[in-house]
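Question (not urgent): is this output format expected?
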Amino acid sequence: MKNGRTRRPSALLALSLAGLLFLMMPASVLGATPAATVTGPATVRAGDTIKVAVKIGGTGLRAVQGEIQYDAAVLSFRETGGLLSGWGFEEADSSVAGKFVFIIMDKQQEAPIDSTKQLFTLTFQVRSAVAAGDTIRVLAAKLAASDGVDDFYPADASYSVQAAAPLSGNTDLASLTVANATLEPAFGKGTTSYTVSVPFDVSSLDLVAKAADAKAKVSVSGNSLAAGGTTDVAVTVTAESGAKKTYTIRVTRAQDPNYVASGDNALVGLSVEGFLLSPPFEPERLDYVIWLPYEVEQVAVSGTPADGKAAVAVEGAAGFAAGQGNAIRVVCTAEDGTTRTYTIAAMRAAAHGDITGTPPATPEPTGELTGEPTGEPTAAPSGEATGTPAAEGTPTPTGGGNPSDRDGPPIRLEIWEILVLALALAGLGYGAALVFGKGRKGAR
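Got this back:
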């Protein structure tokens, strides 16, 4: 006491201390209860797949459990996802359709919830029998949360929405008009293909298309007409549901009266799949050969025109006869109608062990050897040997040369025989040619 007065603590200081103590108290003492929410899409229709999120807000939360409830006649449960990082999810008591119990917790006790967090998501399929106006509801009930010291019991939370009417699938046109051409046939919403013819001075169609459904969209593509050719103009109707229908107008536009058609009928490429042309292709060379084994009866031939407006046709590339050449014709027709023909001789080998066709009969030896006089061979006088005696019945030729080098008349090959040997070598190999040679020698 001083001067008869007593000091008293400031009321303001006391209030400040009380407020500080209040702020330092744990949430459980303060009575702050975590709050849960369940959210989903604003518009849902029969057949949709929807994803619903379950969230909770609080401080220091380390575990949450509860029960998910839904109408199994309206929703079909698909899967759980979107789990809170660091937390584990367990599902229990799911034997009853339309509900299951969940438990989710901080597995390592290192990631507590200190604000509003998404615990997990639920994916449902809306059943097709759901009608517009039906209620779609997902409820999170019997919730309990813990911070490791105290337990909390948040209020139930739910997501609810009324099913919207199905999206329109109407892809019809109500009308289709062309101001600068006449549609054939006349427009009908069920007819999707039309034709028109226009003069050269019409480069695009002046058309108007109107959808039967106001929620559908109409688009036009390809409305740039090629002179002297045909162009498909597409009118596409896209319904609210995403379904599409295309109306096609095939337009034939006249050629430019001053246009001169190209006469380029040359090829810049010619090939036979799996085989080489002989000689190698050149645009100005018209005749080629390919060698084929007996097993190949047809080939794939392709030709590339120098002018993109020219057309290429292949004739005779199948049904090859064995043991002879087969003509393949590759015809390039220019824009102006003129043609150029490239020919490929497909030489197919004869069948194995056979020479296609019967070769001409080989004349029997007349006793004449090349460079020898004609007549009967001269036999050695009886009792006198001159050189090596000839085998009985075997004439011994006279004249120049060493008889031991000859065991028959010399072989003469005609032109046709050379060709047959070439076929045999190509299709059957060297061994087959030797067999042919020996067979012919025996025939002599």
